[in-house]
Amino acid sequence: MDFGRVITAMVTPFNDQGKIDWDQTASLIDYLVEEQQSDSLVVSGTTGESPTLTDEEKLELFAFTVKHVAGRCKIIAGTGSNDTAHSVNLTREAEKCGVDGILLVAPYYNKPNQEGLFRHFEAIAAVTSLPIILYNVPSRTVVSLSVDTTLRLAKIPNIVATKECAPLDQIATIVSQAPDHFRVYSGDDASALPAMAVGAYGVISVASHVAGRTIKEMVVQFFNGHVDEASRLHRELLPLFKVLFECPNPVAVKYALNETGHPVGSVRLPLVPPNEEEALRIRSML
């Protein structure tokens, strides 16, 4: 399964009552696939506000997105949690919805050790035939998948990639020692180009909601050997990358989408909209 080089971690559009807005979800999917050139979409990841979506909402989103995309890109379902049994069940149900892959965040809050992390992902992989992308984001989960644990997991046939928000030396080591089929994605827009320089395959992006075409061009230029042009585009994008993460994600990117004519609504508590100063900085980048 090739998920492509630019994957968008899609926001979940809400209406004024805080419910999923299905019409805007359809419009957003079309915009991300056709205009922003996303190769794949992650549905119900952190950017999709997975902590405040019910399982019923998640499964509805998976099925709706698969149907609306109609083969135009790949759909990756976020089914990770800090409860292995819960993730096992949600992954089984997601597969029934017709998604193309699974994204599994490292278990948060209960702080498992490396053996616990390995067994968590191993147990989920055992109940699905879908390809799985690991998600290592220590700033949110407190725990970090080590290189050794990632390499152990990479030997499981349907664990095919990792989304890494780890230092470049960890990315480089995984790329060097993992099986040839195993891919590493940068999970941080600002680190995408440096990560690709040490062997990452692409990026799972938030900024691609509003700058997907430029990010795609940066990636294409890099892999075509035009490093100077890729570097220029990366530098051009850096201020946008910075401002989109001054607020807790996805507060800023949802505000940016609303400001650019894509009414995806606000965020669910405990997240809150940007304050006046934050909103001004976001608008200045658009």
UniProtKB/TrEMBL annotation:
It comes from the Bacteria. It holds the Pfam family DHDPS. The keyword Glycosyltransferase does not apply. Pathway: Amino-acid biosynthesis; L-lysine biosynthesis via DAP pathway; (S)-tetrahydrodipicolinate from L-aspartate: step 3/4. CDD domains: DHDPS (cd00950). Its EC number is 4.3.3.7. Keywords: Amino-acid biosynthesis, Cytoplasm, Diaminopimelate biosynthesis, Lyase, Lysine biosynthesis, Schiff base. Gene3D superfamilies: Aldolase class I. It is an enzyme of class 4 (lyase). It catalyses: L-aspartate 4-semialdehyde + pyruvate = (2S,4S)-4-hydroxy-2,3,4,5-tetrahydrodipicolinate + H2O + H(+). The record marks 46, 109 as: Part of a proton relay during catalysis. GO terms for molecular function: 4-hydroxy-tetrahydrodipicolinate synthase activity. It is found in: Cytoplasm. The active site is at 135 (proton donor/acceptor), 163 (schiff-base intermediate with substrate). Pyruvate binds at residues 47, 204. InterPro entries: Aldolase_TIM, DapA, DapA-like, Schiff_base-form_aldolases_CS. Homotetramer; dimer of dimers. Catalyzes the condensation of (S)-aspartate-beta-semialdehyde [(S)-ASA] and pyruvate to 4-hydroxy-tetrahydrodipicolinate (HTPA). Belongs to the DapA family. This is 4-hydroxy-tetrahydrodipicolinate synthase. The lineage of its organism: Bacteria, Bacillati, Bacillota, Bacilli, Bacillales. The gene is dapA.
